[in-house]
Amino acid sequence: MLGAFPHAMPLEGLIGGLMIGVAAAVMLLGLGRIAGVSGLAARATGIADSGAPRGIAIAFVIGLPLGAFIIAQIAGGIETRFPPSVIPLVIGGLLVGYGTRLGSGCTSGHGVCGMSRLSPRSLIATAIFMASGFVTVALMRAGGLL
Amino acid sequence: MKQILVALFAGALFGAGLAFSGMADPARVQGFLDLFGRWDPTLAFVMGGAMIPMAIAWIIQRRLDKPFADAHFSLPGTTLIDRKLTIGAVLFGTGWGISGLCPGPGLADLAINPLPALAFVGALLAGMIAHRVTS
Questions:
Q1: pTM strictly above 0.90
Q2: Cβ separation of A60 and B7 shorter than 8 Å?
Q3: Cα distance between residue B3 and residue B19, in whole Å
Q4: Range B57-64 average pLDDT
Q5: Which residues numbered 110-139 in A keep a CB inside 8 Å of some CB on B?
Q6: Cα–Cα dist B68/A25, whole Å
Q7: Residues within 8 A of B (CB atoms), A 29-68 only
Q8: Which tens digits make up the pLDDT trace of A29-51?
């Protein structure tokens, strides 16, 4: 099916996506909250004054590396190919941090939770950040940065 | 206490899903955004997979008076599509493309590849603080 994209992982992607969706559903139906990682991270660190109770935010944020660690242990390692320099990590991090607060969400809150709710606000935010990501990477490729 | 455990479980399952799906790998995410290079469609499968349980969850949510482990639903009610939303999304998408990372994978990677993940997460929090002090 994906012979043109030999490096794709459609099955792992689908199963991992289902896990992410069930995790977000547990937050929604269990605690009545959106599993928005940027909002929960801001709340856990005290950067945001409103939102989920801090205990809930901290527990969810600690869970993220914990779950990834468990999978890495089971799988005998997970591939994480980071940019070779710290510069794109820092510039990217600053833009992601500022942008998610200004735009009230990221891939999880607007993407997973908002799109499945058919929230027009989240559909527009997701379309814009996807387009922005496509353009950014196209420019990086054109500029010889990839 | 029950709420803390539910949140920890949800976070761990979310992080496990990120790791299992390949989304903890910045190069794979960047590969999805790289339409003119070696395009990698995996992220679309992850998004599609995540939509299925969540679409069902929203249908169930409409029939509930309150969530199973909390007193009431605390869901965003904003419908405003304004400059903040659009500019925020543009900036986020730019940073996402530059690094191949968004907040979930950045935090999950602290357990797998701590040093570069810490560089990203440190900058992420600095960006959030910058937004707080300028707004």
A1: yes
A2: yes
A3: 24
A4: 98
A5: 110-113, 115-117, 119-121, 124-126, 128-138
A6: 11
A7: 29-35, 37-38, 41-42, 45, 47-48, 52-53, 55-57, 59-68
A8: 999 999 999 999 999 999 999 99
